[in-house]
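Lay summary. Proteins are chains of building blocks that fold into shapes, and those shapes determine what they do. In this project we predict the shape from the chain. Here is one chain we studied, written as its sequence of building blocks.
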Amino acid sequence: MQVKLNVVVGAVALLLSGTAMSQDVLVVKIGHVGPTSGAIAHLGKDNELGARMAIAELNAKGMTIGGKKAKFELLAEDDAGDPKQGTAAAQKLVDSKVNGVIGHLNSGTSIPASKVYSDAGIPQISPSATNPKFTRNGYKTTFRVVADDVHLGGTLGRYSVKELKGQSIAVIDDRTAYGQGVADEFEKGVKAAGGKIAGREFTNDKATDFTAILTSLKAKKPDVIFFGGMDAVAGPMLRQMKQLGIEAKFVGGDGICSGELPKLSAGTMGDNQVYCAEAGGVEEGEGRKVSDAFKAKFKEQYKVDVQIYAPYVYDAVNVMAAAMKKAESSDPAKYLPVLAKTEGYKGVTGTITFDPKGDIKNGALTMYTYKGGEKSQIAVVR
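And here is the predicted shape, written in a compact code that computers can read:
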């Protein structure tokens, strides 16, 4: 009888000990949403890997929040780059009671999803949505760690006139929130620099045949063609430009500025034919060393190169975690005001400070071209 009693007492003690241990662990759920299926799945997976890398490192460091050891969990959702699927994914994360969300990748999914997160009071940091409207709805929960299209499109417009000496500039966009938005800003930049738009056409983000619009533009003899859209569409467009004998410079925003573009164009790109800009970047010096070290570690861990925005996802996760630590709480209502006041955070993508709208202050752009089928950096512009 005494033996049985000792066993019971021991079991109860073990149970109570386990309960005490579990009470000392704070589970923090971080949601991530991106297109991990569809034409730009390679970009969505790149983003998700950036989040997984950050989560793994946070857990390895053993961060404490409010005196409790934090255990970070990633809840990853696929929005396929579709606005309806994006809002459904957002609602799923809200229902799962996530503490914060990193995403979405596209402006077209980030903007409608931002209302879902705002209504729930859950902070959202996009690593790549550049449409200005994303942070213009007055939601206190909305942030981004990259420059917006006013800066991106405008800079590319001026660059096309002043550096590429564009005399006849044509514009194509894919009618998405991102593509049309960056094309509009590009056009403004061209005109502000004294350039002229010879023609403007549009397609959609799932198109594969551009013969009609390219033939129409060919008659205008453009020396620069700007495309507002993603690399999955830009690649086939470059192939068809080659087939039609159009030798214009091809310019685009961050959506085309990937390591996959040469493959998607089936090797039809000439050296210094394609110019693009990422909405972020670090200058030469210590910042570049940190950025390069991240990319090397990423490749070693996942056996793939960074496409575009994995480093920005990585920083976004860490900025969110840092705000929780400083607020001593993972409760969105408690750490959100601290997140909004983020200032001087040193990340792998540079220094992060949010302005009152949730935009990054003094956001950088990195200009690239392609040589020998590889991205080649030209300059960092602020």
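What the prediction tells us: Residues 1-5, 7-22 have pLDDT under 50 and may be disordered.
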